Amino acid sequence: MIDSKTLNAWFCQEVLPLERALTAFIRRNWRVADEVVDIRQEIYERVLSGASNGLPAHAPSFVYTLARNHLINSAKRARIVSFDLVADLESVDRDVDMLAADRHLTARDELRRAQEGLARLSPRCQEVVRLRKLEGLSTREAAERLGVGKDAVERQLVMGMRALVDFMAGGTGKIVWQNRQRARKTRGEP
Amino acid sequence: MSPAAEIEDRAAQWLMRREEADWSDAEQAALDAWLDASMAHKAAYWRLEHHWRRADKLRALGGGTVEPLETRRERPRRIWWTAIAASLLAVAGAGAAIYGFGPEKPQAIADARFTTPVGGHRIVPLSDGSRIEMNTATLVRTAMTGENREVWLDTGEAYFEVAHRAGQPFIVHAGSRTVTVLGTKFSVRRDGEKVTVSVLEGRVRVDDASAQTVPAAIITAGDIAIARGPSTLLAARSEERVESALAWRNGMLTFDQSTLAEAATEFNRYNRKRIEIADPEAADIRIGGTFRASGVDDFVALLRDAYGLKVEADAAVIRISS
């Protein structure tokens, strides 16, 4: 059994840099765009479970194999069968280079990426993230500074954190909030 | 929220709490228990923690002042561009001296022509930092001079990511329409007389080059403008529709309640083997979903198996009838 710290380090160094390519791979092979993030999360879960018994020698092929199998199983379960996704995936080139990583980001690229991600946030999120990251304010201090409630700051910070991380990880930096509003409505919350 | 979003939201709350000064041992124990409960929790939390920590580099910008990001970002870039422009001019000047040309108008940096075959897909970087992503059967010409940035879309479809340059509009000529932008992401598609402009980010202006009196249409992110002859139709604002209009960039075609006839036309843009619909009844069947643009055979198999249509195929044509 691999301990949690080693597993975490392996996940950050070997798996997370594959995220952009992995997302593109799922998107190409899954018809429902809204489910791509869920599927990626499920693949990560399987990757960690698999690796916790022993770290694989080659992370990209390990991730790719799990991703492919997971897509095939999900397609079978969802019975999207008439369009032959499964056969398509089974015949697909086993080209692991597809998961070539963006791992050679220099510190400068990282800074640029972080800046760009920050610039993409909504003005309120941006303000809160900036107070946190640049000035190191706690949520209470940020709330005092902005003259709003601590809850509001926490909500904006959670949103800003998720969107910025998505962008840093190679995504669009967009988090879908409509779902949340819709979910709230159906649950009768404000 | 979807299950993944739910977990990620929770993980973000933990991460935020943990950075606070009053983080307690009891909270640490609760976090550990939450992480141990599922690999999915670990994956979401570790991913956020890793990238969020990388964003600490923002502090290198010097905390203290909260200056608007835009100015900080633009300043060095502009200096960089000026330097490049200066060195290009220097090179051009040197060339002129060697070959004995007199001092002339600003030199053209690039005058070029790019094509893709049927089913092709190509990305062309331009000298100003912009990118053109070309779809199937497309012909594009570019003229990038010191002052003007112009592109002609002669046939087909292309997606543009335009680098912002103050005072230098980027102009796309598509048949009777000209599209003018300052810095944005959008696509232009030509089907004969019909010109479709879909905007992913920013704003563009669409002019009718043949009629000076008609006011220009301004379209913003999430809009689709369809121009034919003298009229321009602005489709209802929808980011989803713009995203499906751009699905080809992933090699996919997306249909939402399209007729089979329309779907067949789309597939025929990407493939040499053509789909022909033999009767109007079949042509009117509604199709929805996302398909691989090169997967004609899969699409046809679906029509046969799921819709019970008749399929006859030879090397060049697939005939579909009800």
UniProtKB/TrEMBL annotation, chain A:
<keyword id="KW-0804">Transcription</keyword>
<dbReference type="InterPro" id="IPR014284">
    <property type="entry name" value="RNA_pol_sigma-70_dom"/>
</dbReference>
<dbReference type="InterPro" id="IPR013249">
    <property type="entry name" value="RNA_pol_sigma70_r4_t2"/>
</dbReference>
<dbReference type="InterPro" id="IPR039425">
    <property type="entry name" value="RNA_pol_sigma-70-like"/>
</dbReference>
<dbReference type="InterPro" id="IPR013325">
    <property type="entry name" value="RNA_pol_sigma_r2"/>
</dbReference>
<dbReference type="InterPro" id="IPR013324">
    <property type="entry name" value="RNA_pol_sigma_r3/r4-like"/>
</dbReference>
<keyword id="KW-0731">Sigma factor</keyword>
<dbReference type="InterPro" id="IPR036388">
    <property type="entry name" value="WH-like_DNA-bd_sf"/>
</dbReference>
<keyword id="KW-0805">Transcription regulation</keyword>
<dbReference type="Pfam" id="PF08281">
    <property type="entry name" value="Sigma70_r4_2"/>
</dbReference>
<comment type="similarity">
    <text>Belongs to the sigma-70 factor family. ECF subfamily.</text>
</comment>
<feature type="domain" description="RNA polymerase sigma factor 70 region 4 type 2">
    <location>
        <begin position="113"/>
        <end position="164"/>
    </location>
</feature>
<protein>
    <submittedName>
        <fullName>RNA polymerase sigma factor</fullName>
    </submittedName>
</protein>
UniProtKB/TrEMBL annotation, chain B:
<feature type="transmembrane region" description="Helical">
    <location>
        <begin position="79"/>
        <end position="101"/>
    </location>
</feature>
<feature type="domain" description="FecR protein">
    <location>
        <begin position="113"/>
        <end position="205"/>
    </location>
</feature>
<dbReference type="InterPro" id="IPR012373">
    <property type="entry name" value="Ferrdict_sens_TM"/>
</dbReference>
<protein>
    <submittedName>
        <fullName>FecR domain-containing protein</fullName>
    </submittedName>
</protein>
<keyword id="KW-1133">Transmembrane helix</keyword>
<keyword id="KW-0812">Transmembrane</keyword>
<dbReference type="Pfam" id="PF04773">
    <property type="entry name" value="FecR"/>
</dbReference>
<keyword id="KW-0472">Membrane</keyword>
<dbReference type="InterPro" id="IPR006860">
    <property type="entry name" value="FecR"/>
</dbReference>
